[in-house]
């Protein structure tokens, strides 16, 4: 299973999904799915944009967990 740490990162940086969507151009629904860990697929450019904007590595955003 892949865990997305977007909610923790946004909380630590005191950012809101709407603000990230506005600045990055990423669809708000896509961000909400990542935030709530309900996304089943994500485009690589979305991951890249998020990592660059949030100044994190891919491993900070996504983690593979054993089932």
Automatic annotation (TrEMBL):
- Record InterPro entries: Cro/C1-type_HTH, Lambda_DNA-bd_dom_sf
Q: Which PROSITE patterns match?
A: HTH_CROC1 (PS50943)
> Taxonomically, which superkingdom?
Bacteria
Membrane-spanning parts: none
**Which SUPFAM superfamilies does this entry report, sorted A to Z?**
lambda repressor-like DNA-binding domains
Question: Which Pfam families does the record cross-reference, listed alphabetically?
Answer: HTH_26 (PF13443)
Q: Which residues form the HTH cro/C1-type domain?
A: 6-61
Name of the protein this chain belongs to: Helix-turn-helix transcriptional regulator
Which source organism does the UniProt entry give? Shewanella subflava
Give the classification, highest ranks.
Bacteria, Pseudomonadati, Pseudomonadota, Gammaproteobacteria, Alteromonadales
């Amino acid at each position: 299973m892949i865990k997305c740490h977007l909610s923790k990162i946004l909380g630590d940086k005191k950012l809101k999904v709407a603000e990230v969507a506005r600045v990055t151009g990423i669809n708000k629904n896509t961000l909400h799915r990542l935030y709530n860990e309900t996304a089943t697929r994500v485009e690589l450019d979305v991951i890249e944009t998020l990592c660059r904007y949030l100044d994190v590595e891919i491993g900070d955003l996504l983690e593979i967990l054993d089932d």
